[in-house]
Amino acid sequence: MNLDCIRHPRLREWIDENVAMCMPDDVVVCDGGHEEADRLAERMLRSGSFKRLEKRPNSFAVRSDPGDVARVENNTFICSRFREEAGPTNNWRDPQEMKGELRQRFFGCMRGRTMYVIPFSMGPVGGPLSQIGVELTDSVYVVLNMRIMTRMGEAVLKELDRDKPFVKCLHSVGYPLTLGRHELPWPCDSNNKYIVHFPEERSIWSYGSGYGGNALLGKKCYALRIASVMARDQGWLAEHMLILGITNPDGKKKYIAAAFPSACGKTNLAMLVPNLPGWKVETVGDDIAWLRWGDDGRLYAINPEYGFFGVAPGTSLKSNPNAMRSTEKNCIFTNVATTPDGDVWWEGIGGEPPAGLVDWLGEPYDPSKGKPAAHPNSRFTAPASQCPVIDQAWEDPRGVPISAILFGGRRAGTVPLVHEAMDWEHGVFMGSIVSSETTAAAAGAVGQLRRDPFAMLPFCGYNMGDYFHHWLRMGERSGVKHPRFYYVNWFRKGADGKFLWPGFGDNARVLKWIFERCDGAGEAVETPIGNVPAPGALDLDGLDLSPEAMAELLTVREDEWLADVPGIRAFFGSFHDGFPEELVARLDWLERRLRHPAAKRHRSAIA
Questions:
Q1: pLDDT(2) > 90
Q2: 20 to 30 Å CA-CA from 269: which of 179, 334, 394, 598?
């Protein structure tokens, strides 16, 4: 044990309590240094858990247990004092009952293993928007990934020496090395997974899974579920949003935040290579944003993470060259296929599968079986600092000023390419009705349409009705300068079932229009759902897109939207008492406009 460096009394007490419960053979406080990382990686190589990738310096491939490949929303719990505080979109359990159940699982769960103590900062260490956490884990995989995804180690311990508050994160793979048990390449307890949050006491207990956000507790568990409660209590926002900077040919720059459900193009947009001469996009963050009002009345955002935990399939030099270049070294790849010459491969990376390919299960790849070589939710963990278009302000502890907030998802129809909200309240309404076709990023069926307000349905740590109230209250503050709100849909399809919009680098054409609208320019046409680009307002120079396709992309069909209204109304109704009346009024307003599209469409129509 090397616990002498722990001088924070409450932290030391908490570690001692969990050592007594979990019974590890040893306890190690992680310093986050290169020597420590090299030593742990060598241990994983010797055990057969890691495979060194000769084509990518200091990079490794790892395969998970087939039963541990994605978030497990059915086994994710919010344990607030009262069921109403968790709301209808979360799985609720009584905190004391759940702790009693978990203690039985955690008792002796680290026998034969080392407990690693990971002090980490979400956001630049010591920054005014940053927060601290400490994760206890028996997984070397978690240690090495947390080193990439967070600022961890000695600098954080020094912050803790100042008696700073911290979120308590306890994790175990649930596979003690008791008598007669041998180590596995991917230890887990796949039949007994618990990802449990205790918002009032700012703590997380995770058992049984070693995968992704189930185990890297600084990510979705802390940065969204627990942080969203902290944000509500302290007057800020913790959101499932990318942050990008966009600069026009004149050198003028704006920052945009965007909320899309997982695997719906956040990373691609955050690292966009614009198909417009003179325009530049730079990355602040690809997944999570923490936002506060600044002293100047503008909304400022930081990326609390230090790395990218990106979906691999579909990522290529064509779709996202900057993501590919971010993964050239110092990366961990999970559940991808591997090539005989020591590289990685996945569907959509480009080209045919090479001879001798080994799939994510460790078997020779046989395309005749009709199964993918890489798991659809396979991932890369890459340092954000390696992104070739990382924004120079990405580590500014004050954050960057946000001019526009985008929502989006996968919709084959109904939702146009882009539309603009009338005001803050309308923007919150837009965020509350986000829906998307499900993907492999979450366990369950793929391709079903589900409501995912603000892309936060799996990640809000309290009642989403109260979450909408919080967003509305944030916009009511005096002296603030509201960003504009937009809803985008890159995935609209034509009658032939093919995507109408080319996407990727051409998404910059939509960002350009948004940029211009934020400057008080950019022509728009009012529709029942909001403003869409006027004919000719989108820069389509050099784009091979027929006028008919463009018209279809921006068409608002009242009958299709009216067909959506009952589902939205039922979703709002599922919150019962306390749901914001303002959003119900906005839905009524939308329905009236849809039924009478030629009527005057002014904000006062809500009254």
A1: no
A2: 334
